[in-house]
C-alpha cells in the first residue's frame, strides 16, 4: 500500500473523492506540511496560509511549544474519561478561567459541542433561576449566523445548504437581524420566556460581517436589563484573532481579563474553540460564572473526551503562546496595515468593492454577483501565486493568516494579493 509521503496531489484528491463523503468543496491543493505562517503541498511548493483553518491555527502551524506539550502529555496519559479525576484537568481549569476571568469552565471538544452546551446551560438557567415555565425557553439568534452543524444548531441557520432536508428542526429560537439593537430590544420585550441572546461579535462565516463598535455593548446592556443571558460565540473571533484577546474586548489592549472598562462587553456565557488549541487538537470550552454554571449537576451533561489530559496540556500551552508572543498586539498592528494597503488598492479597483474586518480577521468583497465564480477564480489564482484563501458566500474572500506573521511577510502577501487582483480588473 502506498504511504502518504509517496502520494501525489492528484492521487490524494482522487482518494478523497472516491472514499470520502463529499461534504466539502476544497480548493484543489493538497497540503502535507506546515510551519508558522506557511504550508507546503505534496510536491513541495510553499504557500502562505491565509485561512488558518478558519482561525484555529492562530499560533501558527505546528508551533513547537504546543507540539511539545501535546507529545509529552501523549506519552504520559491521554484519556481517563470524567469517571475519574486526572491531575491535568484541575490546573487547566484554573488557568483558563483566570485567563478569561470567569468562575468556571465546562470543557468540550468541538465548537458545535460547545455551542450546544451553551444552549443547554442557558435553557436550564432559565427554568431554574429565571422561573420560565418548562419547555417555554427561547433563545434569540441572528440571521446569517454560523454556530456549527448539529441538528439543533442548523435549526436556527438561514443557510439553505446547511438546513434543507435535515428537519424536523429544534424549536425555541427567535431570529433577528444582526447589528440591529432595535430588533433585539423588540424581541426582548416581546416575551418573558427568553433565556439568552446567542451572537457572534463578528460574523465570520457570513463574510466577516463586522457590526458597529457599540453593538456588543448595547446588546449586553439590553440583555442585562431583561434578565437574559448574553452568550458570545467567540470560536472564530476569540483568542487574539481580532487584535484583542476577545472580539468583545473591543480596543482593550490588556491581552487578558482586566478591570479596564474599555471592553465592548462581558458575556455571561463565553464559547471558545478553534485556536484554544492552536489547531493541534479539538478543544472547546464554555465559560460562565457560578450562578449560571451551578445549574449543571452530575449526569446532566458531558463528553467522554471533554477535558482530557492532552486537551488540557495543549490548551494551556496554546494560551501561553498567545500571551508570550503578544499575538493580539501583532494582529492589531498587522490588521491595520493590511486594511490600509488594501484600501489603497481598492481606490483604483473595479474588481474589489471593499475590505472589512478587525485585527487579522478580514474579507474583501468582490464586485460580482454571489453566484459568480470570480471569487473562486481569484482564489485559484492566489493559490498559483503562493497564497491560500477561500471564498465564503460566493463573492467574499476571507483573509485570516496565522497571527505569528511578521510585517515583512504581510507586505509580501499584500503584493501577492494585489498582483493577483490586478489580473482580474476589467
Ligand atoms: C467554526 C465555528 C463553529 C463550529 O466549530 P466546529 O469546531 O467546526 O464545530 C461555531 N461557531 C463559530 C462562530 C465558528 O466559527
UniProtKB/TrEMBL annotation:
<keyword id="KW-0808">Transferase</keyword>
<dbReference type="InterPro" id="IPR005814">
    <property type="entry name" value="Aminotrans_3"/>
</dbReference>
<dbReference type="GO" id="GO:0019544">
    <property type="term" value="P:L-arginine catabolic process to L-glutamate"/>
</dbReference>
<dbReference type="GO" id="GO:0030170">
    <property type="term" value="F:pyridoxal phosphate binding"/>
</dbReference>
<dbReference type="InterPro" id="IPR015422">
    <property type="entry name" value="PyrdxlP-dep_Trfase_small"/>
</dbReference>
<dbReference type="Pfam" id="PF00202">
    <property type="entry name" value="Aminotran_3"/>
</dbReference>
<dbReference type="InterPro" id="IPR050103">
    <property type="entry name" value="Class-III_PLP-dep_AT"/>
</dbReference>
<dbReference type="GO" id="GO:0042802">
    <property type="term" value="F:identical protein binding"/>
</dbReference>
<protein>
    <recommendedName>
        <fullName>ornithine aminotransferase</fullName>
        <ecNumber>2.6.1.13</ecNumber>
    </recommendedName>
</protein>
<dbReference type="GO" id="GO:0055129">
    <property type="term" value="P:L-proline biosynthetic process"/>
</dbReference>
<dbReference type="GO" id="GO:0005737">
    <property type="term" value="C:cytoplasm"/>
</dbReference>
<dbReference type="GO" id="GO:0004587">
    <property type="term" value="F:ornithine aminotransferase activity"/>
</dbReference>
<dbReference type="InterPro" id="IPR015424">
    <property type="entry name" value="PyrdxlP-dep_Trfase"/>
</dbReference>
<comment type="pathway">
    <text>Amino-acid biosynthesis; L-proline biosynthesis; L-glutamate 5-semialdehyde from L-ornithine: step 1/1.</text>
</comment>
<dbReference type="InterPro" id="IPR010164">
    <property type="entry name" value="Orn_aminotrans"/>
</dbReference>
<keyword id="KW-0032">Aminotransferase</keyword>
<comment type="similarity">
    <text>Belongs to the class-III pyridoxal-phosphate-dependent aminotransferase family.</text>
</comment>
<dbReference type="InterPro" id="IPR015421">
    <property type="entry name" value="PyrdxlP-dep_Trfase_major"/>
</dbReference>
<keyword id="KW-0663">Pyridoxal phosphate</keyword>
<dbReference type="GO" id="GO:0010121">
    <property type="term" value="P:L-arginine catabolic process to proline via ornithine"/>
</dbReference>
